Structure prediction request, 235 residues.
Amino acid sequence: AQTVTQSQPEMSVQEAETVTLSCTYDTSENNYYLFWYKQPPSRQMILVIRQEAYKQQNATENRFSVNFQKAAKSFSLKISDSQLGDTAMYFCAFMKWNTDKLIFGTGTRLQVFP
Amino acid sequence: EAGVAQSPRYKIIEKRQSVAFWCNPISGHATLYWYQQILGQGPKLLIQFQNNGVVDDSQLPKDRFSAERLKGVDSTLKIQPAKLEDSAVYLCASSLGRLAGGRPGYRDTQYFGPGTRLTVL
Prediction:
């Protein structure tokens, strides 16, 4: 069975600084997807970034980028130039190839302060 | 484009009562999901529909939970009777549910609704 571990329950960062959220996962699969979702206090989950395991290049979306280390089964999220609106719970998620079932970690609460 | 709609946003019931949640997915989305998010945990998939058929309900406690998507559009999740441990946020999500661009194994992004917070007393 696949598991996703987020070892940082809470993080904080000052506005305009950079922060990295950690995620590790356990799987015997070779092909899969990884995601970072953001859940602001309003509760609507929003996709931040996704990575397909067969792609060696790390995904980037504006200020968000990932460091995907397949051999180490690590998938960290880097947020550059942090903004107050980045304050939220961040969930790392795993999806097996050819399925739609997301398996989430327990989340990291990120607080961005002025 | 309208997002995933859910109602009610909040519900408080006593144990052994029944409750129902409603979800309307994004227009044109064939796949619909119900997740349970217990406080302090990540969401857990309860059931997945493709149009009006069930794809995966392996984690749905079928003795008390039921879900339907009769016309392949909106969906209802019911709990009867509720237990204290059912207190959670129930999230609905939808996705287009198709293989795009001929890329093998491609999966569409899941879009989430705002959720229903259920408190069982």
